[in-house]
Amino acid sequence: MDRLRVAFERPAQALTLRPSLGRGTGVSRARIRQGLTCEIEDGQWKLIADMPTPAGGDGAAPTPGVFGRAALGSCLAIGYMLHAAKLGVPIASLEVEIQADYDDGALFGVSTSPPGYLDVRYTVTVDSSAPASDVHRVLDEGDAHSPYLHVFSRAQTCRRIGCIQSSGKA
User: Fold this and answer.
1) Cα separation of 89 and 1, whole Å?
2) Quick one: pLDDT at residue 169?
3) pTM, to two decimals
4) At 94, which helix (H) or strand (E)?
5) Within 13 A of 14's CA, how many CA atoms are on the CB side?
6) Cβ distance 57 to 36 under 8 Å?
7) Phi and psi torsions of 168, nearest 5°
8) Contact 142, 80 (CB under 8 A)
9) How far apart are CA 55 and CA 43, in angstroms?
10) What's the rounded Cα separation, in Å, for the pair 113 and 91?
11) pLDDT single digits (tens) 73-115
12) What is the pLDDT of residues 119-146, one digit of tens each?
């Protein structure tokens, strides 16, 4: 708990003194390897995404939806633990379950539903000896400062900034 508290306080203090330290641009690159199998690279990390065979993929890896739900769930879980450490609230275990309703007909252009999630819900299960009010304070602070909860909760500006077309000629 102390290690997490220090890990939270050190960057918070540095960012208070120099907010520009916290600003940057994350860059991920996704390339189709074969069929619908997609290789994702972000720095040292390499991931694979695919679609299930009924949707034209090979079912060789998780779908993008799995990664999206995992991003939200892990961001919430990590944020809760950081805020628990900051507030001195002991947590023995914590689990976040993400439920997201969707209509795949939108992906294939045969539904009037939007192509994203129709509804997203999450349940947090916490084992803690602290009073419930302290645990709820941790969850409230974690929610208020969760980057991916905000990505999922509010409209984002997303725009294609270019297209580079290769003629395929050598």
Assistant:
1) 9
2) 67
3) 0.88
4) strand 93-101
5) 10
6) yes
7) 80, 0
8) yes
9) 30
10) 40
11) 999 999 999 999 999 999 999 999 999 999 989 888 999 998 8
12) 999 999 999 999 999 999 999 999 999 9
